[in-house]
From TrEMBL, chains A, B:
A cellular component annotation (GO) from this entry: nucleus
EC number: 2.2.1.1
Ligand binding (thiamine diphosphate): 35, 82-84, 124, 153, 229, 409
Origin organism lineage: Eukaryota, Fungi, Dikarya, Ascomycota, Saccharomycotina
Reactions that this protein is recorded to catalyse: D-sedoheptulose 7-phosphate + D-glyceraldehyde 3-phosphate = aldehydo-D-ribose 5-phosphate + D-xylulose 5-phosphate
MF terms in GO: metal ion binding; transketolase activity
Cofactor mode of binding and number, as noted: Binds 1 thiamine pyrophosphate per subunit. During the reaction, the substrate forms a covalent intermediate with the cofactor.
Protein name as catalogued: transketolase
Positions bearing the site annotation: Important for catalytic activity: 229
Active-site residue numbers: 383 (proton donor)
Amino acid sequence: MGLAPAAHVLYSQMRFNPKNPEWLNRDRFVLSNGHACALLYSLLHLFGYDFSLDDLRNFRQLNSKTPGHPEFELPGVEVTTGPLGQGICNAIGMAMAQAHIAARFNKPNFEISNNYTYCIFGDGCMMEGVASEAMSLAGHLKLNKLIAFYDDNHISIDGNTNCAFTEDVTQRLEAYGWNVIWVKDGNNDIEGVAKAIEQAKKVTDKPTCIRLTTTIGYGSLNEGTHGVHGSPLKPADIKQLKEKWGFNPDESFVVPQEVHDLYQKTIDSGIAAEQEWNALFSKYAVQYPEEAAELSRRISGEFPANWTSKLPVYTPADAAVASRKLSEIVIESVHDTLPELIGGSADLTGSNLTRWKEAIDFQPPSTGLGTYAGRYIRYGVREHGMGAIMNGISAYGAFKTYGGTFLNFVSYASGALRLSALSGHPVIWVATHDSIGLGEDGPTHQPIETLAHFRALPNCMVWRPADGNETSAAYKQALESKHTPSVIALSRQNLPQLEGSSIAKASRGGYTLVEKADADIILISTGSEVSLAVEASKFLEETKGIKAGVVSLPDFHTFDQQSHDYRLSVLPDGVPILSIEVMSTSGWAKYSHQQFGLDRFGASGPAPKVYDFFEFNKEGVASRAEKTVAFYKGKHVSSPLNKAF
Amino acid sequence: MGLAPAAHVLYSQMRFNPKNPEWLNRDRFVLSNGHACALLYSLLHLFGYDFSLDDLRNFRQLNSKTPGHPEFELPGVEVTTGPLGQGICNAIGMAMAQAHIAARFNKPNFEISNNYTYCIFGDGCMMEGVASEAMSLAGHLKLNKLIAFYDDNHISIDGNTNCAFTEDVTQRLEAYGWNVIWVKDGNNDIEGVAKAIEQAKKVTDKPTCIRLTTTIGYGSLNEGTHGVHGSPLKPADIKQLKEKWGFNPDESFVVPQEVHDLYQKTIDSGIAAEQEWNALFSKYAVQYPEEAAELSRRISGEFPANWTSKLPVYTPADAAVASRKLSEIVIESVHDTLPELIGGSADLTGSNLTRWKEAIDFQPPSTGLGTYAGRYIRYGVREHGMGAIMNGISAYGAFKTYGGTFLNFVSYASGALRLSALSGHPVIWVATHDSIGLGEDGPTHQPIETLAHFRALPNCMVWRPADGNETSAAYKQALESKHTPSVIALSRQNLPQLEGSSIAKASRGGYTLVEKADADIILISTGSEVSLAVEASKFLEETKGIKAGVVSLPDFHTFDQQSHDYRLSVLPDGVPILSIEVMSTSGWAKYSHQQFGLDRFGASGPAPKVYDFFEFNKEGVASRAEKTVAFYKGKHVSSPLNKAF
Ligand SMILES: [Ca+2]
Ligand SMILES: [Ca+2]
């Protein structure tokens, strides 16, 4: 309740049409301290969004429209929040998206994009490292259409913040390059809040934080204590509170007509603003038909027809290339056709190979290093911030976005990736250096558990392409995805172009690469180990007379969505299946009877020596295949796909 | 090379005995920018640690003592670093450990503990959120014996930091409550560095950061460019460099005698310091025998005999209790017996139940909220920082440490947990609210992939106890662990005390809870679903005549270490096994033929309704068990433990 007055001032001056919550140029609002969602739901109800009083009454009930934290799918809820620190980063992503749209599409007399992004965050968000990362970047990027409110209520669940959080927040934000305005009595100083917003809008080269010193549960008998942080007020407290504010204490969920009338003004002006914008855009379409067509297409989420013709295709005659490099070739090939593609990397551009040659950096023009129309984002060493910002860019609309880092450090961004999957933001992680094949950097950098982790995340594609065609397939699926994020795991080392791979086949998530009639065994594998499986298959036939088919399974999630018949044709009954992947075997029993992996940490050394050390070579695979064949000899072998339910 | 002069000044005045790198009161040094490890290995060689010139020559070779990043196991390497941001947090943990040891054991004329903790970190560390979290806490905690060097070289892999990192670092650190000293010519101003260290030691209420403005690759032909960041210098460059510094350009890995002599002084004075300390400690043992005995025991890592008698034991007659509460009861029971236990929580004390009643907070006395002798740490909302700090406390020695948060937010700390496992820091995560059973907070807070992730991490225990005895077993194993971290997943909701559970049985990681002769099926489960499996077993027998044994598997890692015979007695041939766990099924095929789980995100609502919605009730389990029995009827069923290799 300490926040309610400021939130009302904020919403009253915002520009949005509750009847069309997806209007591109609406002002955005993000509640980063998502546990305060009752406030947000009330605002959405009052400001005309599709939230009824019944919805409010069903607060936190199963399948209600008012869950315990705001969820992206709900009208007027811009992003799912709750995990602290994420929302402010999402807001920063949205402000970056807006800055880019404005720089790309605005023309003299046609201010197509000028919306503000607002956010409320609390002490909890400010303590989270992810917010630190993104807020530092926001200052660097001079995102002046970002206005955030810091709910300075001195309370977190552990009680007074003085037990753990005594930093000078204003000074810290100023160090990041933010403009900070302090409203000392956030509980009551309505006019101060309004003025602060006005002032913030006048600043042209910095994001603004309005620090609102408030009292949590203001007006409650327990105001200012953490007792009101997550717990409902007692009936007697609610009664005195209603009396204090002049409401009928015997009524609940009643909104007086005069209140509705007041809010209707904001709604009406929002509706009018959208109509004006539509009219402006119609004129714009006459004068700038190309730009208008591009923006309309991007808003629709549809790619240009035949864009997939840009995807590189390979034959076995082509040279062996590292899949991180194959990824770079895809980005280089498609970036012109897909102007909605905006991406970057958490500092490792030269290693992740995420930047096309002629890319312009996304930078404030004053830096001399780029412009806001630039499409390459220098995130700095900020993986988690990058992940959360990508969610914000994606939620803004009209973008496809990717970010690069080493696969192992996508884990730093677990919190953001989880929200991509939960909310259905189809962002793309370009995750290079995907195994012990990175060599000398050693076990601190060599993923073991990483793919198992991401594969266990619902609604997440985890691609590990084996060659050029599979890399093109991974990008095809990841780019066309509407509601599922992707992690694309890419090698540092060169991989040969495989006989039998194709974009179409790999796009099904898994397929038979080497077909063997009457196979004794099937080797199933991903990424850099697929060519090893092919080698081992030849070696087995030549030296042992064992016939080993090879299946490539670049993405579990996509494969799982194929028909049972198709999947059973790839992993049939009657043949033992051995998985080969140079990391944790966890999760592989779903597709195989026996697993060869690395259930320990890696080692520092030249990559080929490290592979040999762990026996990931044709002899090592062959000896395990032999044992598997012997073990299953004479036994009835059922496909792992056959299940009781 | 920009850092080398300062590093030499620093090491020359440090107090350590290279022949006994484990001396408790040694000064610690952490290289947070671990990719600069060539510098660290050289220092360790020069200052008498067990690093030969041959070791240096084998830099980044397989199984060498000089891997691509510093590893904890190596003499003189205090912590494994490389993943950016972690090392500075580890250093903060070490400084906290030192402050506690000093407050607990120092007596008039007996300064048993007074070591400094030094750290070098770079721009990359400063950009990482994890560092932000811990540095803010370090300022709050006024850790004056922490002296960190910020290598302000303006370069990261993406080139000049001005493309992404333009914040005012000095101002930010001052906002956190740090003392900042700027040495503007870090390349050359040896005296300035020495003076800065002296000054830092005089500050009594703040950690100090010495900002060293340096040139990366100073002296190289490419000095000041990111070309020297991770790549070796070219031979011609090395030659001119050696000539510039007065070395013979034709010699490599040669250290002149006069250099050795110089360093010998530091070594000698370190050896003398340890001898003095040993003498002091002998006198201390006479005057303060209890304290001396405690500290000696703690250094040895052995617990008091019979400490396990403090672990609570339950019978089925005892009340149903949430396992987070059972965890609190363990902490309450053992904290007196185990004074090395120091723990805290990332803000959620009242929800995680991590604090014993009479605990004193670990705080600077000036706050009036506790003392450095306090053993309860208020981490604030900083999960990742907490994880990395715990690693530092553990690496310091003489502590067992735990930290609490919701299970779902342990994922925020993936980077730190991975290093716990890799380095073998036996820290404990008290991870409450471990499933959809947390109810109303909804899918943003309900773990799905989390256990699969941690179980795929090598060398990590992931306990999910089902009742009181199993909670005691989890703590027994986690506390006694010397080289393996633990995540203990605990419920928000009440769990009944099970017939057939015991500390001894659960300590094996998995055991038969309900034995059925001629079982038709075995239900295998963890945590809150074990009692559900027991219920379903009764229901199956009563309504369908199906005999279902029940296995509880509280920790995969510990179970895997039991003998094959034991494991096969729990998961025998001939019986289909159905796993029941209300989260991702990934990884369960290792112990079961069929899986019932939740391979989607959860839902917001009262917990019992959410369980019913996903059919996690006795009817839902029973119907799946029935299908499983039918599916395997007449088939040969082999234990999932039987493997070809
Ligand atoms: Ca929405
Ligand atoms: Ca060591």
